[in-house]
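Exercise 7.
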Amino acid sequence: MSAQNGLVQRLWNYCNILRDDGLSYGDYLEQLTFLLFLEMADEQTKPPFSRPSIVPDGLDWPSLLARDGDDLEVHYRHVLTELGKGSGMLGVIFRKAQNRIQDPAKLRRLVVDLIDRENWLTLDADVKGDAYEGLLEKNAEDVKTGAGQYFTPRPLIRAIVEVMRPEPGMTICDPACGTGGFLLAAHEWTSRSPLLDPDQKKHLRFDALRGWE
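Solution. The predicted structure, written as C-alpha coordinates, is:
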Protein backbone atom coordinates (compact mmCIF):
# COMPACT_ATOMS: atom_id res chain seq x y z
CA MET A 1 0.00 0.00 0.00
CA SER A 2 1.41 3.43 -0.98
CA ALA A 3 1.98 6.21 1.55
CA GLN A 4 -0.93 8.11 0.01
CA ASN A 5 -3.34 5.18 0.13
CA GLY A 6 -2.30 4.25 3.67
CA LEU A 7 -2.86 7.80 4.90
CA VAL A 8 -6.23 8.07 3.20
CA GLN A 9 -7.31 4.71 4.60
CA ARG A 10 -6.36 5.61 8.19
CA LEU A 11 -8.15 8.93 8.02
CA TRP A 12 -11.17 7.42 6.32
CA ASN A 13 -11.47 4.51 8.73
CA TYR A 14 -11.65 6.97 11.58
CA CYS A 15 -14.28 8.97 9.75
CA ASN A 16 -16.45 5.85 9.68
CA ILE A 17 -16.07 5.55 13.46
CA LEU A 18 -17.18 9.15 13.93
CA ARG A 19 -20.19 8.60 11.69
CA ASP A 20 -21.63 6.43 14.45
CA ASP A 21 -21.96 9.68 16.41
CA GLY A 22 -23.86 11.33 13.58
CA LEU A 23 -20.89 13.18 12.07
CA SER A 24 -21.22 13.62 8.32
CA TYR A 25 -18.35 13.24 5.87
CA GLY A 26 -18.39 16.97 5.30
CA ASP A 27 -18.20 17.68 9.04
CA TYR A 28 -15.24 15.33 9.37
CA LEU A 29 -13.35 17.03 6.55
CA GLU A 30 -14.04 20.41 8.13
CA GLN A 31 -12.68 19.34 11.53
CA LEU A 32 -9.70 17.67 9.88
CA THR A 33 -8.92 20.93 8.08
CA PHE A 34 -8.96 22.96 11.30
CA LEU A 35 -6.80 20.49 13.20
CA LEU A 36 -4.29 19.98 10.38
CA PHE A 37 -3.87 23.73 10.06
CA LEU A 38 -3.01 24.02 13.76
CA GLU A 39 -0.66 21.03 13.64
CA MET A 40 1.26 22.25 10.61
CA ALA A 41 1.46 25.77 12.03
CA ASP A 42 3.13 24.23 15.08
CA GLU A 43 5.55 22.22 12.92
CA GLN A 44 6.73 25.47 11.36
CA THR A 45 7.93 26.71 14.75
CA LYS A 46 10.38 23.80 15.03
CA PRO A 47 13.67 23.03 13.22
CA PRO A 48 14.46 23.20 10.36
CA PHE A 49 11.85 25.96 9.91
CA SER A 50 12.07 27.71 13.32
CA ARG A 51 9.56 30.40 12.39
CA PRO A 52 7.54 32.52 14.83
CA SER A 53 4.16 31.02 15.56
CA ILE A 54 1.26 32.47 13.59
CA VAL A 55 -1.18 31.10 16.19
CA PRO A 56 -1.49 32.89 19.57
CA ASP A 57 -0.04 31.12 22.59
CA GLY A 58 -2.66 29.09 24.41
CA LEU A 59 -4.70 28.59 21.24
CA ASP A 60 -2.09 26.51 19.44
CA TRP A 61 -1.51 22.83 18.80
CA PRO A 62 0.47 22.16 22.03
CA SER A 63 -2.46 23.54 24.02
CA LEU A 64 -4.65 20.79 22.54
CA LEU A 65 -2.08 18.05 23.11
CA ALA A 66 -1.80 19.05 26.77
CA ARG A 67 -5.48 18.36 27.45
CA ASP A 68 -7.67 15.29 27.75
CA GLY A 69 -11.27 14.38 28.41
CA ASP A 70 -13.91 17.09 28.70
CA ASP A 71 -11.17 19.68 29.17
CA LEU A 72 -9.93 18.99 25.63
CA GLU A 73 -13.38 19.30 24.07
CA VAL A 74 -14.11 22.55 25.92
CA HIS A 75 -10.72 23.99 25.04
CA TYR A 76 -11.04 23.02 21.37
CA ARG A 77 -14.33 24.90 21.18
CA HIS A 78 -12.62 27.87 22.84
CA VAL A 79 -9.75 27.72 20.33
CA LEU A 80 -12.09 27.76 17.34
CA THR A 81 -14.15 30.62 18.75
CA GLU A 82 -11.18 32.81 19.66
CA LEU A 83 -9.30 32.23 16.40
CA GLY A 84 -12.47 33.08 14.50
CA LYS A 85 -12.50 36.49 16.18
CA GLY A 86 -9.00 37.30 14.95
CA SER A 87 -8.02 39.62 12.15
CA GLY A 88 -6.23 38.64 8.98
CA MET A 89 -6.07 35.17 7.52
CA LEU A 90 -6.60 33.33 10.85
CA GLY A 91 -9.92 35.07 11.33
CA VAL A 92 -10.98 34.18 7.79
CA ILE A 93 -10.06 30.50 8.20
CA PHE A 94 -11.76 29.99 11.56
CA ARG A 95 -14.71 32.38 11.27
CA LYS A 96 -17.88 30.68 12.53
CA ALA A 97 -15.91 27.45 13.12
CA GLN A 98 -17.54 24.98 15.52
CA ASN A 99 -16.52 21.69 17.04
CA ARG A 100 -18.55 18.81 15.61
CA ILE A 101 -16.79 16.02 17.52
CA GLN A 102 -18.67 15.81 20.80
CA ASP A 103 -17.01 12.67 22.21
CA PRO A 104 -13.83 13.82 24.03
CA ALA A 105 -12.17 10.39 23.71
CA LYS A 106 -12.65 10.35 19.94
CA LEU A 107 -11.43 13.92 19.63
CA ARG A 108 -8.34 12.99 21.63
CA ARG A 109 -7.68 10.01 19.38
CA LEU A 110 -7.97 12.17 16.27
CA VAL A 111 -5.59 14.77 17.71
CA VAL A 112 -2.97 12.46 19.21
CA ASP A 113 -3.12 9.13 17.38
CA LEU A 114 -3.92 10.24 13.85
CA ILE A 115 -2.77 13.81 13.28
CA ASP A 116 0.11 14.34 15.71
CA ARG A 117 1.87 11.12 14.69
CA GLU A 118 2.50 12.42 11.15
CA ASN A 119 5.09 15.01 10.21
CA TRP A 120 2.82 16.73 7.74
CA LEU A 121 5.23 19.37 6.50
CA THR A 122 7.87 16.80 5.58
CA LEU A 123 5.40 14.70 3.60
CA ASP A 124 5.67 15.20 -0.14
CA ALA A 125 3.20 17.82 -1.30
CA ASP A 126 1.65 15.36 -3.73
CA VAL A 127 1.14 12.83 -0.92
CA LYS A 128 -0.71 15.38 1.20
CA GLY A 129 -2.69 16.67 -1.72
CA ASP A 130 -3.58 13.22 -2.99
CA ALA A 131 -4.52 12.05 0.50
CA TYR A 132 -6.86 14.97 1.03
CA GLU A 133 -8.22 14.61 -2.49
CA GLY A 134 -8.90 10.95 -1.76
CA LEU A 135 -11.08 11.97 1.17
CA LEU A 136 -12.88 14.57 -0.93
CA GLU A 137 -13.55 11.99 -3.61
CA LYS A 138 -14.99 9.58 -1.06
CA ASN A 139 -17.13 12.42 0.26
CA ALA A 140 -18.41 13.15 -3.25
CA GLU A 141 -19.34 9.49 -3.70
CA ASP A 142 -21.44 9.45 -0.54
CA VAL A 143 -24.89 9.57 -2.12
CA LYS A 144 -26.55 7.97 0.93
CA THR A 145 -26.32 11.16 2.97
CA GLY A 146 -27.06 13.49 0.09
CA ALA A 147 -23.43 14.55 -0.17
CA GLY A 148 -23.02 13.10 -3.67
CA GLN A 149 -21.61 15.54 -6.20
CA TYR A 150 -19.56 15.37 -9.35
CA PHE A 151 -15.86 15.06 -8.57
CA THR A 152 -13.46 16.14 -11.32
CA PRO A 153 -10.28 14.00 -11.32
CA ARG A 154 -7.06 15.91 -10.75
CA PRO A 155 -5.44 14.90 -14.10
CA LEU A 156 -8.43 16.37 -15.95
CA ILE A 157 -8.27 19.56 -13.89
CA ARG A 158 -4.56 19.96 -14.63
CA ALA A 159 -5.11 19.36 -18.34
CA ILE A 160 -7.82 22.03 -18.52
CA VAL A 161 -5.67 24.55 -16.63
CA GLU A 162 -2.73 23.85 -18.94
CA VAL A 163 -4.96 24.56 -21.94
CA MET A 164 -6.26 27.81 -20.41
CA ARG A 165 -2.77 28.89 -19.25
CA PRO A 166 -3.78 31.53 -16.65
CA GLU A 167 -1.32 34.41 -16.47
CA PRO A 168 -0.09 36.61 -13.59
CA GLY A 169 -2.48 39.48 -12.93
CA MET A 170 -5.57 37.60 -14.06
CA THR A 171 -8.61 37.14 -11.84
CA ILE A 172 -9.92 33.57 -12.03
CA CYS A 173 -13.55 32.77 -11.24
CA ASP A 174 -15.25 29.41 -10.77
CA PRO A 175 -19.03 29.81 -10.34
CA ALA A 176 -19.43 26.17 -9.23
CA CYS A 177 -16.17 25.64 -7.37
CA GLY A 178 -17.16 22.70 -5.18
CA THR A 179 -14.02 21.76 -3.25
CA GLY A 180 -11.91 24.29 -5.15
CA GLY A 181 -9.89 21.90 -7.31
CA PHE A 182 -9.81 24.16 -10.36
CA LEU A 183 -8.91 27.24 -8.30
CA LEU A 184 -6.09 25.40 -6.56
CA ALA A 185 -4.68 24.11 -9.85
CA ALA A 186 -4.88 27.60 -11.36
CA HIS A 187 -3.03 29.00 -8.35
CA GLU A 188 -0.32 26.35 -8.64
CA TRP A 189 0.10 27.05 -12.36
CA THR A 190 0.27 30.83 -11.96
CA SER A 191 2.58 30.75 -8.93
CA ARG A 192 5.21 28.89 -10.98
CA SER A 193 5.50 31.74 -13.48
CA PRO A 194 9.02 33.26 -13.53
CA LEU A 195 7.49 36.61 -14.50
CA LEU A 196 5.68 37.29 -11.21
CA ASP A 197 6.49 40.75 -9.86
CA PRO A 198 5.69 41.83 -6.26
CA ASP A 199 2.32 43.37 -7.20
CA GLN A 200 1.29 40.25 -9.09
CA LYS A 201 2.29 38.04 -6.16
CA LYS A 202 0.13 40.17 -3.87
CA HIS A 203 -2.76 39.94 -6.33
CA LEU A 204 -2.37 36.17 -6.58
CA ARG A 205 -2.39 35.81 -2.81
CA PHE A 206 -5.34 38.05 -1.99
CA ASP A 207 -7.47 38.84 -5.05
CA ALA A 208 -6.84 36.45 -7.95
CA LEU A 209 -9.20 33.60 -7.03
CA ARG A 210 -12.98 33.79 -6.75
CA GLY A 211 -15.21 30.81 -6.11
CA TRP A 212 -18.93 30.31 -5.54
CA GLU A 213 -20.94 27.22 -4.76
